[in-house]
Amino acid sequence: MISARLSAAFLVLLALAGCTADTYVPKGEPSMYRSLAQPGAQLDEAAAASMISGYRANNGLPAVTLDPELTRMAQGQAAVMAQRDKLDHAAGKPFNVRLKAAGYDAKVAAENIGAGYHTLAEAFSGWRDSPPHRANMLLKGATRLGIAAVYTPKSKYKVYWAMIIAQPDDK
């Protein structure tokens, strides 16, 4: 009687172990943890917009959607900073001048920059933990977002970031 129960329990455990070992396939690393400090690495812009939108929702604000024009401007700013190896809102031209030159009419707009964050999660956390950068991510009325990261192997920072958040002026 006892050996029959032990045999049955053993068979059940063996079957369960076999099922989980054969069918479990771990998912890839979430893109927010992917290192961008390597050649060819690409920022997952949709994940960035989702992360920032979730943060905004947790603070009672509407989501933001990716804006190709803001993304292009963020890419340009990150690239200029990477080229000059200098973290600076005015590397190239000041933010307001760049918005105007691009013809982007915004009711409100703000920019976050960063350097040395190798992952989206690190950049987001750095901005969230800095009061002025957090205020920009929580910009009231903002509905659009552009974000970029540029890898530069010769820099001590390796990765430069730019994020632009705005409320377009739909005249």
Order of helix and strand elements from N to C terminus: HHEHHEHHEE
Q: Any idea what the radius of gyration is?
A: 23 Å
Shape: globular
Helix content: 40-55%
Helical stretch count? 6
Strand arrangement in the largest pleated sheet: 1-3-4-2
- Poorly predicted spans: 4-21
**Beta fraction of the residues?**
15-25%
- Provide mean pLDDT, rounded: 87
**E-strand count:** 4
Terminal-residue CA separation: 83 Å
Features:
single chain; about 170 residues; 4-stranded mixed beta sheet; globular
Give a verbal description of the structure:
With 171 residues, the chain is an alpha+beta fold. It contains six helices and four strands, in the order ααβααβααββ. Strands 1-3-4-2 form a four-stranded mixed beta sheet. A hairpin with a 7-residue loop joins strand 3 and strand 4 (159-168). It is globular, with a radius of gyration of 23 Å. Residues 4-21 have low confidence and may be disordered.
Brief summary:
The chain has helices spanning 2-23, 45-58, 68-84, 95-101, 120-128, 131-137; strands at residues 65-66, 106-115, 144-151, 159-168. The protein is an alpha+beta fold. It has a 4-stranded mixed sheet with strand order 1-3-4-2.
Helix and strand arrangement:
Layout (H helix, E strand, L loop, with lengths): L1 H22 L21 H14 L6 E2 L1 H17 L10 H7 L4 E10 L4 H9 L2 H7 L6 E8 L7 E10 L3
Parallel strand pairs: 1-3
Antiparallel strand pairs: 2-4, 3-4
